[in-house]
Amino acid sequence: MHLPCPCCGPRDLREFTHKGADDYLRRPAPDAPPEAWDDYLHTRANPAGRTRDLWYHDPCGTWIAVTRDTVTHAVIGATGLEDAQ
Amino acid sequence: MADLTATSPFAGARLPQRFAGCTLEALPPAQITAVAPYPGQLAALRQTLGAFPGPGAVIAAAGGRLVWAGRGLALAFDADMPQGSAEHAALSDQSDGWAGVSLRGTAAPMVLARLLPLDLRRLPPGSSARSLLGHLPALILRPEALAFELWIWRSMVGSAMHDLTGAMQAVGARQALAEPPTG
Q1: pLDDT tens for residues A23-54?
Q2: Structure confidence by residue, pLDDT tens digits, B81-102
Q3: Is the ipTM of this structure higher than 0.90?
Q4: Does any CB of chain A come closer than 8 Å to the CB of residue B122?
Q5: Hey, where are the domains in chain A?
Q6: DSSP-based three-state secondary structure for A32
Q7: Domain span holding position B135
Q8: CATH architecture of A2-84
Q9: What do you get for the CA distance between the two ends of chain B, in Å?
């Protein structure tokens, strides 16, 4: 599997570290109810199909959000997180 | 003050090594300065240095080479950092932290294909890439089509030499098998 690093171009999976679902980008406010925090920490959709998750490109140090399909294994695209903010 | 003896990172590595028509040898130690521009300071730094490399670039600047080395990071090799550059970027001397080897020869891309998860067709002569050499983080430069500079962390030279000589021997063995038997 190749993932597109916005810095380096398409690179082999071995160069990346997987973080998890992009839910980690939606951190609740510090005073949010416990249910929101429980959701943030533990509830994952685990979709069969299109998913968006976070990866770190170890050699160049770029965090990216990758859109891919868990059924076909197609990698649809990636955006750098710092650029997206 | 104690008088320390400088030791080559390759002491005990038995370089140069020659297999498969490739030569692996130590590069002379370089003065290496890591240059990490402060947020919003890239344009000002470019003005001070004359240039700053984008992803994959190797450029001549400040009397040396500026090599792209990651997101928001360049390594300056043997460069004289101009006065004022420290105002726009974090500069740190990393000369002793890196060790460089050169791998050259017609089979050099075949040797590296066994170790790098990198498509060398995307690394044109004159460019640089961050990747892995075996399992070691590395900075790879390709000054010429059949000549590579591999910069790795000094503490990992032993593993890198083991991986590189192993890959060179394996490519050499393949070449020997492919040749028609003599006699």
Answers
A1: 999 999 999 999 999 999 999 998 999 999 99
A2: 988 899 999 999 999 999 999 9
A3: no
A4: yes
A5: 2-84
A6: coil
A7: 17-29+97-178
A8: 2-Layer Sandwich (3.30)
A9: 66
